[in-house]
Write a structure and sequence with these properties.
heterodimer, A: alpha/beta, FAD/NAD(P)-binding domain, 3 domains, 8-stranded mixed sheet, 7-stranded mixed sheet, 23 strands, 24% strand, globular, B: alpha+beta, Arc Repressor Mutant, subunit A, 4 helices, 52% helix
Chain lengths: 456, 98
């Protein structure tokens, strides 16, 4: 398998970089460790400050990548190593085992309906369920099932239900070597763990949730179909946000500002006041960092909607017997007065940290926090210390969606400059067989004759 | 044809290779099934809220909500109406899809 560019990660930054490069005629291979493309953004409800539906923006890009003549996408694939080799790169990848033939699976979900095992669904912050045989989520691309073999009880019901005999029990992980001339690292972020600050009871008290959990509660296709608190399904009357609950905190090794928490808390507050018109919403903050275009106005709009912004530091959260949460706060204003308000549901604005350690597979320099470090952080932010390897999005540091997309386009331009002009006609990645792997859904299981591709 | 002559199922070969299903997993499946049965029994008399079902079933509200969420996703339960701060759930009229 050969491609001009290997893009690692298919969140919004990876998708954008892949599309920009493919549109310029380069052949691109996108690899994604999860079973669907879309990264974190596909799980969000709406995006600030425009309040666009997040999946309405993300799915067209996921789809465009899946159907682009110059892009091959391999989901559920791990990157083991990327080594420089004769002016290019040799990447060793492992295509993980779905126990489902992607070429045969038609995404009908009959295996999922037949499966008797239900486990917490990671995509829903574990608030909802999925089955051992499942499609990752409703808007997943590809719409292909997989079997979580650790949750399988070998009842065989999925196999009986499958109308295309797509279940493959003897599938083995497939090691693949790919030659690429350039690499884009778009490995994204994870959040600081919900239980990082023990005094906030995250991970213990059911009604202490993360900002990403609230995104799922607010999403129309979320686990409950509405905003309920996880302990007992109560429609919350009083919701609190605790800002900087995982960033700007030396004790967690995250002294930096995560840059998005103020804005997502404000956005969620506004959405909550729409879905729960009678609820009191309080944001406990150190200071509001509304730095982008239109962001300060967004914040002021939230204030005018009646959302209660309280400049205070939260010292401790205790769970009451009925699941309510007593928050001990020290006001930063009002002469440091102490208060102990009670809320139904508490959202911790957890911070952003690196999603992966790219040094596991490629020798790029990282900064002291584990984000990819550019040798020219001001003038050429997407560069790495390795010629031919660039990075984009939150792999380089915390940033919002707008900045991630702009940076991905910048990274794509850097790659184009590095590679020089592509072959005159756009060409799909060459798998060495003289055939093109066109269908993301089929992986390389289905090969079709390469069509003539001409520029308009 | 005796069982020894039957072709080995690929699934059973995989199970053999990976070892027996853990007791924890089997236990969680049993508990989930028991919770579903209890919910169906509680809802047989009409729509109920999560705390009402929990009281009838003798299970925690958290377990009932999680199980109801799964049943709703897979078509066995529907939202009926709201009762103050809680949602009333009902059995789906046509029964579960599965």
């Amino acid at each position: 398998m050969e491609a001009d560019v290997l893009v690692v990660g298919s969140g919004i930054a990876g998708l954008q970089a892949a599309l920009d490069l493919a549109d310029r005629g380069y052949s691109v291979l996108v690899v994604e460790q999860e079973a669907s493309t879309g990264g974190k953004m596909i799980a969000l409800s709406k995006v600030f400050p425009t309040m666009d539906c997040s999946s309405c923006i993300t799915t067209p890009r996921m789809s465009a990548v899946a159907h682009h003549d110059n892009i091959t996408t391999w989901t559920y694939t791990d990157v083991d190593s990327i080594a420089p080799e004769g002016g290019a790169f040799s990447a060793h990848l492992t295509r993980k085992v779905r126990y489902v033939d992607e070429g045969l699976c038609i995404g009908c979900r009959l295996c999922e309906y037949a499966c008797p095992v239900e486990v917490p669904h990671e995509f829903e912050g574990n608030m909802g369920a999925r089955r051992a045989a499942y499609i990752p989520f409703g808007t997943a691309i590809p719409q292909k099932a997989l079997i979580d073999i650790d949750a399988c009880i070998y009842c065989g019901k999925c196999e009986k239900a499958c109308p295309t005999d797509a279940i493959v029990w003897d599938q083995e992980p497939q090691a693949v070597t790919v030659a690429a001339r350039a690499v884009v690292l778009a490995t994204g972020f994870e959040t600081t763990p919900l239980d990082a600050k023990k005094e906030y009871r995250g991970g213990q008290a059911a009604n202490v949730i993360s900002g990403l959990d609230m995104e799922r509660l607010l999403a129309p296709n979320g686990p409950y179909g509405r905003v309920l608190r996880p302990s007992d399904g109560k429609i919350p009357d009083s919701v609190a946000y605790v800002q900087c609950a995982g960033s700007r905190d030396e004790t967690l090794g995250v002294p930096y500002c995560s840059r998005v928490c103020c804005m997502y808390a404000i956005k969620q507050s506004m959405l909550l006041s729409g879905s729960l018109p009678l609820a009191d919403i309080t944001v406990y903050y150190m200071d509001i960092r509304a730095f982008g275009k239109g962001y300060e106005q967004f914040y002021q709009t939230a204030r005018s909607m009646g959302i209660n912004f309280v400049k205070a530091k939260v010292a401790r959260i205790d769970e009451e017997a009925n699941g309510d949460l007593r928050i001990r706060v020290e006001m930063i204003e009002e002469e440091g007065k102490l208060a102990e308000p009670i809320h139904d549901l508490v959202v911790l604005s957890v911070g952003l940290r690196p999603g992966d350690d790219p040094r596991r597979f490629v020798g790029v320099d990282l900064d002291q926090y584990g984000f990819v470090a550019s040798p020219e952080p001001k003038l050429d932010a997407t560069l790495t210390n390795l010629p031919g390897v660039v990075a984009a999005g939150t792999a380089l540091g915390p940033k919002d969606i707008v900045d991630s997309i702009a940076e991905a386009s910048a990274a794509a331009t850097r790659v184009a400059v590095y590679l020089g002009p592509p072959a005159m006609a756009p060409h799909p990645p060459d798998d060495g067989l003289g055939v093109e792997v066109r269908d993301i859904n089929a992986g390389d299981a289905v090969a079709v004759a390469r069509p003539e591709v001409q520029r308009a | 044809m005796t069982s020894a002559d039957k072709p080995r199922s690929k699934m059973l070969e995989l199970k053999e290779r990976r070892g027996p299903v853990s007791a924890e997993l089997l236990d969680s499946v049993r508990q989930n099934n028991a919770a579903k049965t209890a919910i169906k029994r509680a809802l047989a008399g009409g729509p109920r809220t999560v705390p009402e079902i929990a009281e009838a079933a003798g299970l925690s509200t958290r377990t009932i909500l999680w199980t109801i969420t799964a049943m709703r996703k897979y078509g066995a339960v529907l939202e009926d109406s709201t009762d103050g701060s809680y949602v009333r759930y009902a059995l789906a009229a046509k029964g579960p899809r599965v």
